[in-house]
Amino acid sequence: MGYINELGEKAKKSSQTLLRLGTAQKNHLLKQVANHLVAQTSYILTENLLDLENAAANGITSIMVDRLRLDANRIEAMAEGLRQVADLTDPIGEVVRGYTNLDGLKIVQKRVPLGVVGMIFESRPNVTVDAFSLAFKTSNSIILRGGRDAINSNKALVNIIRQTLESEGIDPNVVQLVEDTSHAVAEEMMQAVDYIDVLIPRGGAGLINRVKETAKVPVIETGVGNVHIYVDESADLEMATKIVINAKTQRPSVCNAAESLVVHEAVASSFLPKLEKEIAKVHEMEFRADEKAAAIFEHSKPACEEDFATEFLDYIMSVKVVSSCQEAIDWINTYTSHHSESIITQNLKQAEAFQDQVDAAAVYVNASTRFTDGFVFGLGAEIGISTQKMHARGPMGLEALTSTKFYINGEGQIRE
Protein backbone atom coordinates (compact mmCIF):
# COMPACT_ATOMS: atom_id res chain seq x y z
CA MET A 1 0.00 0.00 0.00
CA GLY A 2 1.35 3.44 -0.94
CA TYR A 3 2.12 6.23 1.50
CA ILE A 4 -0.99 8.32 0.71
CA ASN A 5 -3.23 5.26 0.78
CA GLU A 6 -1.95 4.45 4.27
CA LEU A 7 -2.77 7.97 5.44
CA GLY A 8 -6.11 7.76 3.67
CA GLU A 9 -7.09 4.49 5.29
CA LYS A 10 -6.32 5.93 8.75
CA ALA A 11 -8.24 9.09 7.92
CA LYS A 12 -11.28 7.13 6.73
CA LYS A 13 -11.39 5.07 9.93
CA SER A 14 -10.89 8.08 12.16
CA SER A 15 -13.65 10.03 10.40
CA GLN A 16 -16.13 7.41 11.61
CA THR A 17 -15.08 7.98 15.23
CA LEU A 18 -15.74 11.71 14.86
CA LEU A 19 -19.42 10.99 14.25
CA ARG A 20 -19.65 9.88 17.88
CA LEU A 21 -18.34 13.17 19.30
CA GLY A 22 -20.78 15.76 20.55
CA THR A 23 -20.41 19.49 20.04
CA ALA A 24 -19.25 20.07 23.63
CA GLN A 25 -16.42 17.55 23.23
CA LYS A 26 -15.29 19.13 19.97
CA ASN A 27 -15.35 22.63 21.45
CA HIS A 28 -13.36 21.51 24.49
CA LEU A 29 -10.71 19.92 22.27
CA LEU A 30 -10.33 23.05 20.14
CA LYS A 31 -9.82 25.19 23.24
CA GLN A 32 -7.27 22.73 24.58
CA VAL A 33 -5.33 22.88 21.30
CA ALA A 34 -5.39 26.69 21.55
CA ASN A 35 -3.93 26.54 25.05
CA HIS A 36 -1.23 24.07 24.03
CA LEU A 37 -0.17 26.14 21.00
CA VAL A 38 0.41 29.18 23.20
CA ALA A 39 2.15 27.08 25.87
CA GLN A 40 4.55 25.69 23.24
CA THR A 41 5.30 28.99 21.50
CA SER A 42 9.06 28.55 21.96
CA TYR A 43 9.02 25.11 20.34
CA ILE A 44 6.97 26.37 17.38
CA LEU A 45 9.23 29.40 16.85
CA THR A 46 12.36 27.23 17.00
CA GLU A 47 10.99 25.04 14.21
CA ASN A 48 9.75 28.06 12.25
CA LEU A 49 13.24 29.55 12.42
CA LEU A 50 14.57 26.51 10.56
CA ASP A 51 12.11 27.23 7.75
CA LEU A 52 13.07 30.91 7.69
CA GLU A 53 16.76 30.02 7.48
CA ASN A 54 16.07 27.62 4.61
CA ALA A 55 14.01 30.30 2.88
CA ALA A 56 16.88 32.77 3.12
CA ALA A 57 19.31 30.19 1.76
CA ASN A 58 16.97 29.50 -1.15
CA GLY A 59 16.56 33.17 -2.05
CA ILE A 60 12.84 33.42 -1.33
CA THR A 61 11.58 37.02 -1.58
CA SER A 62 10.91 39.03 1.57
CA ILE A 63 7.22 39.23 0.71
CA MET A 64 6.92 35.45 0.54
CA VAL A 65 9.00 35.05 3.71
CA ASP A 66 6.38 37.17 5.47
CA ARG A 67 3.80 34.49 4.66
CA LEU A 68 6.08 31.92 6.28
CA ARG A 69 7.13 33.82 9.40
CA LEU A 70 5.58 33.11 12.80
CA ASP A 71 5.92 35.15 15.97
CA ALA A 72 4.21 35.14 19.36
CA ASN A 73 1.42 37.39 18.10
CA ARG A 74 0.70 35.16 15.10
CA ILE A 75 0.64 32.07 17.31
CA GLU A 76 -1.78 33.81 19.67
CA ALA A 77 -3.89 34.73 16.63
CA MET A 78 -4.00 31.05 15.63
CA ALA A 79 -5.08 30.16 19.16
CA GLU A 80 -7.75 32.84 19.11
CA GLY A 81 -8.98 31.46 15.80
CA LEU A 82 -9.42 28.05 17.43
CA ARG A 83 -11.39 29.62 20.27
CA GLN A 84 -13.60 31.49 17.83
CA VAL A 85 -14.37 28.32 15.91
CA ALA A 86 -15.20 26.59 19.20
CA ASP A 87 -17.72 29.36 19.91
CA LEU A 88 -19.44 29.06 16.53
CA THR A 89 -22.65 27.06 16.06
CA ASP A 90 -21.96 23.47 15.06
CA PRO A 91 -23.67 22.88 11.69
CA ILE A 92 -23.57 19.08 11.96
CA GLY A 93 -27.08 17.74 12.49
CA GLU A 94 -28.72 21.03 11.50
CA VAL A 95 -32.08 20.45 9.85
CA VAL A 96 -32.07 22.11 6.44
CA ARG A 97 -35.73 21.26 5.86
CA GLY A 98 -38.33 18.73 6.96
CA TYR A 99 -41.68 17.73 5.53
CA THR A 100 -44.13 14.89 5.03
CA ASN A 101 -44.62 13.80 1.43
CA LEU A 102 -47.81 12.54 -0.25
CA ASP A 103 -46.98 8.96 0.73
CA GLY A 104 -46.84 9.90 4.40
CA LEU A 105 -43.06 9.57 4.61
CA LYS A 106 -41.47 11.96 7.08
CA ILE A 107 -38.42 13.39 5.27
CA VAL A 108 -35.72 15.45 6.99
CA GLN A 109 -32.62 16.83 5.29
CA LYS A 110 -29.70 17.32 7.71
CA ARG A 111 -26.15 18.62 7.49
CA VAL A 112 -23.49 15.91 7.71
CA PRO A 113 -19.66 15.86 7.36
CA LEU A 114 -17.98 15.49 3.99
CA GLY A 115 -15.84 12.69 5.46
CA VAL A 116 -12.14 13.10 4.63
CA VAL A 117 -10.85 16.46 3.42
CA GLY A 118 -7.50 16.71 1.67
CA MET A 119 -5.70 20.03 1.51
CA ILE A 120 -2.65 21.03 -0.53
CA PHE A 121 -1.30 24.45 0.35
CA GLU A 122 1.77 26.68 0.26
CA SER A 123 3.87 28.66 2.69
CA ARG A 124 1.52 29.84 5.42
CA PRO A 125 1.72 27.64 8.57
CA ASN A 126 -1.41 29.22 10.06
CA VAL A 127 -3.40 27.39 7.35
CA THR A 128 -2.51 24.13 9.14
CA VAL A 129 -4.33 25.22 12.28
CA ASP A 130 -7.22 26.97 10.53
CA ALA A 131 -7.90 23.96 8.32
CA PHE A 132 -7.77 21.53 11.23
CA SER A 133 -10.14 23.63 13.35
CA LEU A 134 -12.80 23.84 10.66
CA ALA A 135 -12.50 20.18 9.68
CA PHE A 136 -12.66 18.98 13.29
CA LYS A 137 -15.61 21.20 14.22
CA THR A 138 -17.54 19.74 11.26
CA SER A 139 -16.50 16.16 12.19
CA ASN A 140 -14.25 15.70 9.16
CA SER A 141 -10.83 14.07 9.17
CA ILE A 142 -8.18 16.02 7.28
CA ILE A 143 -4.95 15.21 5.45
CA LEU A 144 -2.67 18.23 5.11
CA ARG A 145 0.07 18.62 2.53
CA GLY A 146 1.94 21.90 3.01
CA GLY A 147 4.90 23.13 1.00
CA ARG A 148 8.46 22.09 1.70
CA ASP A 149 9.30 25.66 2.72
CA ALA A 150 7.08 25.34 5.85
CA ILE A 151 7.64 21.67 6.64
CA ASN A 152 9.28 22.17 10.06
CA SER A 153 6.62 24.63 11.22
CA ASN A 154 3.82 22.36 10.00
CA LYS A 155 5.32 19.32 11.71
CA ALA A 156 5.46 21.22 15.00
CA LEU A 157 1.87 22.42 14.75
CA VAL A 158 0.48 19.01 13.77
CA ASN A 159 2.50 17.32 16.53
CA ILE A 160 0.89 19.61 19.12
CA ILE A 161 -2.60 19.00 17.71
CA ARG A 162 -2.14 15.22 17.60
CA GLN A 163 -0.73 15.13 21.15
CA THR A 164 -3.75 17.07 22.37
CA LEU A 165 -6.16 14.76 20.56
CA GLU A 166 -4.49 11.70 22.06
CA SER A 167 -4.55 13.20 25.57
CA GLU A 168 -8.31 13.69 25.20
CA GLY A 169 -8.89 10.10 24.04
CA ILE A 170 -9.59 11.06 20.42
CA ASP A 171 -8.01 9.25 17.46
CA PRO A 172 -5.06 11.50 16.46
CA ASN A 173 -5.41 10.36 12.85
CA VAL A 174 -8.27 12.81 12.38
CA VAL A 175 -5.40 15.12 11.36
CA GLN A 176 -2.37 13.89 9.42
CA LEU A 177 0.48 15.73 7.75
CA VAL A 178 2.01 14.54 4.48
CA GLU A 179 5.68 14.81 5.41
CA ASP A 180 6.94 13.78 1.97
CA THR A 181 6.62 17.07 0.03
CA SER A 182 7.56 15.65 -3.36
CA HIS A 183 5.35 16.35 -6.38
CA ALA A 184 4.94 12.59 -6.90
CA VAL A 185 3.31 12.15 -3.49
CA ALA A 186 1.15 15.24 -4.04
CA GLU A 187 -0.12 13.64 -7.26
CA GLU A 188 -0.83 10.41 -5.35
CA MET A 189 -3.01 12.49 -3.07
CA MET A 190 -4.86 13.96 -6.05
CA GLN A 191 -5.72 10.43 -7.24
CA ALA A 192 -6.82 9.00 -3.85
CA VAL A 193 -10.51 8.71 -4.70
CA ASP A 194 -11.02 5.73 -2.37
CA TYR A 195 -10.06 7.76 0.68
CA ILE A 196 -10.38 11.51 0.10
CA ASP A 197 -13.85 12.96 -0.44
CA VAL A 198 -12.82 16.47 -1.47
CA LEU A 199 -9.50 18.16 -2.22
CA ILE A 200 -8.85 21.85 -1.54
CA PRO A 201 -5.77 23.48 -3.10
CA ARG A 202 -4.74 26.80 -1.55
CA GLY A 203 -1.90 28.79 -3.05
CA GLY A 204 -0.75 30.37 -6.28
CA ALA A 205 -2.13 29.88 -9.77
CA GLY A 206 0.49 27.22 -10.60
CA LEU A 207 -0.54 24.98 -7.70
CA ILE A 208 -4.26 25.40 -8.25
CA ASN A 209 -4.06 24.76 -11.98
CA ARG A 210 -1.91 21.67 -11.45
CA VAL A 211 -4.44 20.25 -9.00
CA LYS A 212 -7.39 21.05 -11.29
CA GLU A 213 -5.69 19.37 -14.25
CA THR A 214 -4.42 16.30 -12.37
CA ALA A 215 -6.90 15.44 -9.64
CA LYS A 216 -9.48 12.68 -9.84
CA VAL A 217 -10.69 13.62 -6.36
CA PRO A 218 -13.39 16.35 -6.50
CA VAL A 219 -11.71 19.77 -6.16
CA ILE A 220 -12.90 23.03 -4.62
CA GLU A 221 -10.92 25.76 -6.36
CA THR A 222 -9.66 28.54 -4.09
CA GLY A 223 -7.47 31.49 -3.75
CA VAL A 224 -6.04 33.00 -6.93
CA GLY A 225 -6.76 36.71 -6.63
CA ASN A 226 -6.41 38.98 -9.66
CA VAL A 227 -8.31 41.59 -7.66
CA HIS A 228 -9.48 44.88 -9.24
CA ILE A 229 -10.42 48.26 -7.86
CA TYR A 230 -12.42 50.52 -10.17
CA VAL A 231 -12.34 54.29 -9.46
CA ASP A 232 -15.50 55.69 -11.00
CA GLU A 233 -15.96 59.25 -12.32
CA SER A 234 -18.01 60.19 -9.23
CA ALA A 235 -15.53 58.71 -6.74
CA ASP A 236 -14.33 60.59 -3.67
CA LEU A 237 -10.66 60.67 -4.67
CA GLU A 238 -9.40 60.96 -1.09
CA MET A 239 -11.35 57.82 -0.24
CA ALA A 240 -10.17 56.10 -3.42
CA THR A 241 -6.52 56.86 -2.65
CA LYS A 242 -6.81 55.51 0.88
CA ILE A 243 -8.58 52.34 -0.27
CA VAL A 244 -6.19 51.55 -3.13
CA ILE A 245 -3.14 52.05 -0.90
CA ASN A 246 -4.60 49.76 1.77
CA ALA A 247 -5.74 47.09 -0.68
CA LYS A 248 -2.38 47.02 -2.45
CA THR A 249 0.25 47.60 0.24
CA GLN A 250 -1.09 46.44 3.60
CA ARG A 251 -0.12 42.83 2.81
CA PRO A 252 0.65 42.32 -0.88
CA SER A 253 1.34 38.59 -0.54
CA VAL A 254 -2.27 37.59 0.14
CA CYS A 255 -5.02 36.69 -2.31
CA ASN A 256 -7.34 39.57 -1.40
CA ALA A 257 -4.70 42.22 -2.12
CA ALA A 258 -5.46 44.44 -5.13
CA GLU A 259 -3.48 43.66 -8.27
CA SER A 260 -5.28 45.72 -10.92
CA LEU A 261 -6.50 49.31 -10.97
CA VAL A 262 -9.19 50.53 -13.36
CA VAL A 263 -9.86 54.29 -13.53
CA HIS A 264 -12.50 56.35 -15.34
CA GLU A 265 -10.93 58.76 -17.82
CA ALA A 266 -12.80 61.72 -16.29
CA VAL A 267 -10.77 61.45 -13.06
CA ALA A 268 -7.60 59.73 -14.27
CA SER A 269 -5.55 62.91 -14.72
CA SER A 270 -6.30 64.04 -11.15
CA PHE A 271 -6.37 60.67 -9.40
CA LEU A 272 -3.33 58.85 -10.80
CA PRO A 273 -0.70 61.52 -9.90
CA LYS A 274 -2.22 61.76 -6.43
CA LEU A 275 -2.09 57.99 -5.97
CA GLU A 276 1.47 57.79 -7.30
CA LYS A 277 2.63 60.41 -4.81
CA GLU A 278 0.80 59.02 -1.78
CA ILE A 279 1.52 55.33 -2.33
CA ALA A 280 5.25 56.09 -2.64
CA LYS A 281 5.15 57.28 0.99
CA VAL A 282 4.17 53.74 1.98
CA HIS A 283 6.26 51.68 -0.44
CA GLU A 284 7.87 51.98 -3.83
CA MET A 285 5.37 50.78 -6.45
CA GLU A 286 5.73 49.63 -10.04
CA PHE A 287 2.74 50.57 -12.18
CA ARG A 288 2.27 48.66 -15.43
CA ALA A 289 0.03 51.01 -17.36
CA ASP A 290 -1.93 51.15 -20.58
CA GLU A 291 -1.19 54.04 -22.98
CA LYS A 292 -3.62 56.52 -21.40
CA ALA A 293 -2.44 55.84 -17.87
CA ALA A 294 1.23 55.87 -18.88
CA ALA A 295 0.79 59.38 -20.28
CA ILE A 296 -0.38 60.56 -16.84
CA PHE A 297 2.01 58.74 -14.47
CA GLU A 298 5.39 60.27 -13.80
CA HIS A 299 6.92 56.79 -13.64
CA SER A 300 5.39 53.60 -15.08
CA LYS A 301 6.09 50.69 -17.39
CA PRO A 302 3.99 49.79 -20.42
CA ALA A 303 1.61 46.95 -19.63
CA CYS A 304 1.35 43.86 -21.78
CA GLU A 305 -1.71 41.62 -22.05
CA GLU A 306 -0.34 39.18 -19.46
CA ASP A 307 0.00 41.94 -16.84
CA PHE A 308 -3.74 42.50 -16.77
CA ALA A 309 -4.32 38.83 -15.91
CA THR A 310 -1.52 38.40 -13.36
CA GLU A 311 -1.67 37.92 -9.59
CA PHE A 312 1.62 39.68 -8.80
CA LEU A 313 1.75 39.14 -5.00
CA ASP A 314 4.25 42.00 -5.04
CA TYR A 315 4.44 45.80 -5.16
CA ILE A 316 3.33 45.79 -8.80
CA MET A 317 -0.03 46.93 -10.16
CA SER A 318 -1.59 46.98 -13.61
CA VAL A 319 -3.55 50.11 -14.56
CA LYS A 320 -6.30 50.55 -17.17
CA VAL A 321 -8.19 53.75 -18.07
CA VAL A 322 -11.80 53.32 -19.26
CA SER A 323 -14.49 55.64 -20.60
CA SER A 324 -17.50 54.25 -18.68
CA CYS A 325 -18.57 52.11 -15.76
CA GLN A 326 -19.87 49.49 -18.20
CA GLU A 327 -16.47 49.33 -19.89
CA ALA A 328 -14.91 48.81 -16.46
CA ILE A 329 -17.34 45.98 -15.68
CA ASP A 330 -16.64 44.30 -19.02
CA TRP A 331 -12.88 44.71 -18.54
CA ILE A 332 -12.95 43.23 -15.05
CA ASN A 333 -15.12 40.31 -16.15
CA THR A 334 -12.56 39.58 -18.88
CA TYR A 335 -9.60 39.36 -16.49
CA THR A 336 -11.11 38.55 -13.09
CA SER A 337 -10.16 35.43 -11.18
CA HIS A 338 -13.63 35.66 -9.56
CA HIS A 339 -12.25 36.43 -6.09
CA SER A 340 -12.88 40.02 -4.93
CA GLU A 341 -13.59 43.25 -6.81
CA SER A 342 -14.38 46.80 -5.66
CA ILE A 343 -15.88 50.01 -7.04
CA ILE A 344 -15.24 53.45 -5.55
CA THR A 345 -18.20 55.66 -6.44
CA GLN A 346 -20.81 58.08 -5.11
CA ASN A 347 -23.29 56.98 -7.78
CA LEU A 348 -25.79 54.47 -6.37
CA LYS A 349 -26.91 53.30 -9.79
CA GLN A 350 -23.31 52.57 -10.86
CA ALA A 351 -22.64 50.80 -7.57
CA GLU A 352 -25.67 48.54 -8.02
CA ALA A 353 -24.78 47.75 -11.63
CA PHE A 354 -21.21 46.89 -10.62
CA GLN A 355 -22.30 44.57 -7.81
CA ASP A 356 -24.94 42.88 -9.97
CA GLN A 357 -22.81 42.38 -13.08
CA VAL A 358 -19.26 41.71 -11.85
CA ASP A 359 -18.65 37.96 -11.65
CA ALA A 360 -16.79 37.51 -8.36
CA ALA A 361 -17.35 35.86 -4.99
CA ALA A 362 -17.12 39.19 -3.13
CA VAL A 363 -18.02 42.54 -4.69
CA TYR A 364 -17.44 45.74 -2.69
CA VAL A 365 -18.62 49.33 -2.88
CA ASN A 366 -16.34 51.97 -1.31
CA ALA A 367 -14.24 49.51 0.70
CA SER A 368 -10.90 47.72 0.52
CA THR A 369 -10.83 44.18 -0.85
CA ARG A 370 -8.63 43.19 2.09
CA PHE A 371 -11.80 42.40 4.05
CA THR A 372 -12.50 39.16 2.13
CA ASP A 373 -11.68 36.85 4.99
CA GLY A 374 -13.51 34.23 7.02
CA PHE A 375 -12.81 35.94 10.34
CA VAL A 376 -14.00 39.32 9.09
CA PHE A 377 -17.15 37.85 7.55
CA GLY A 378 -18.03 36.22 10.87
CA LEU A 379 -17.29 32.66 9.76
CA GLY A 380 -14.46 32.08 12.23
CA ALA A 381 -11.39 30.67 10.51
CA GLU A 382 -11.52 29.92 6.80
CA ILE A 383 -10.22 26.92 4.93
CA GLY A 384 -9.90 28.99 1.77
CA ILE A 385 -11.77 31.40 -0.46
CA SER A 386 -13.67 29.57 -3.16
CA THR A 387 -13.73 31.19 -6.59
CA GLN A 388 -16.13 28.56 -7.94
CA LYS A 389 -19.91 28.63 -8.09
CA MET A 390 -20.68 25.07 -7.00
CA HIS A 391 -21.37 24.15 -3.35
CA ALA A 392 -19.30 26.93 -1.76
CA ARG A 393 -18.33 30.43 -2.90
CA GLY A 394 -16.24 33.08 -1.16
CA PRO A 395 -14.68 32.53 2.29
CA MET A 396 -15.29 28.91 3.25
CA GLY A 397 -16.28 28.43 6.86
CA LEU A 398 -17.94 25.56 8.66
CA GLU A 399 -20.98 25.15 6.43
CA ALA A 400 -18.77 24.77 3.34
CA LEU A 401 -17.29 21.60 4.85
CA THR A 402 -20.64 19.88 5.14
CA SER A 403 -22.89 17.93 2.83
CA THR A 404 -26.49 16.91 3.45
CA LYS A 405 -28.25 13.61 3.93
CA PHE A 406 -31.94 12.71 3.76
CA TYR A 407 -33.43 10.89 6.77
CA ILE A 408 -36.71 9.15 5.83
CA ASN A 409 -39.07 7.58 8.36
CA GLY A 410 -42.09 5.56 7.35
CA GLU A 411 -44.78 3.28 8.76
CA GLY A 412 -44.61 0.39 6.32
CA GLN A 413 -45.11 2.33 3.09
CA ILE A 414 -44.32 0.56 -0.18
CA ARG A 415 -44.27 2.10 -3.65
CA GLU A 416 -47.02 0.84 -5.91
UniProtKB/TrEMBL annotation:
Pathway: Amino-acid biosynthesis; L-proline biosynthesis; L-glutamate 5-semialdehyde from L-glutamate: step 2/2
Keyword Cytoplasm set for record: yes
Main location: cytoplasm
Subcellular location: Cytoplasm
Record-level Gene Ontology MF annotations: glutamate-5-semialdehyde dehydrogenase activity
Keywords: Amino-acid biosynthesis, Cytoplasm, NADP, Oxidoreductase, Proline biosynthesis
EC number(s) reported in the record: 1.2.1.41
Keyword Cytoplasm: yes
Domain Aldehyde dehydrogenase: start-end pairs: 10-283, 316-378
PROSITE patterns: PROA
Catalytic reactions of this protein: L-glutamate 5-semialdehyde + phosphate + NADP(+) = L-glutamyl 5-phosphate + NADPH + H(+)
PANTHER family: DELTA-1-PYRROLINE-5-CARBOXYLATE SYNTHASE (PTHR11063:SF8), GLUTAMATE SEMIALDEHYDE DEHYDROGENASE (PTHR11063)
Role description: Catalyzes the NADPH-dependent reduction of L-glutamate 5-phosphate into L-glutamate 5-semialdehyde and phosphate. The product spontaneously undergoes cyclization to form 1-pyrroline-5-carboxylate.
Protein family according to the UniProt entry: Belongs to the gamma-glutamyl phosphate reductase family.
Protein name as it appears in the record: Gamma-glutamyl phosphate reductase
Species this protein is from: Streptococcus porcorum
Taxonomic lineage from the root: Bacteria, Bacillati, Bacillota, Bacilli, Lactobacillales
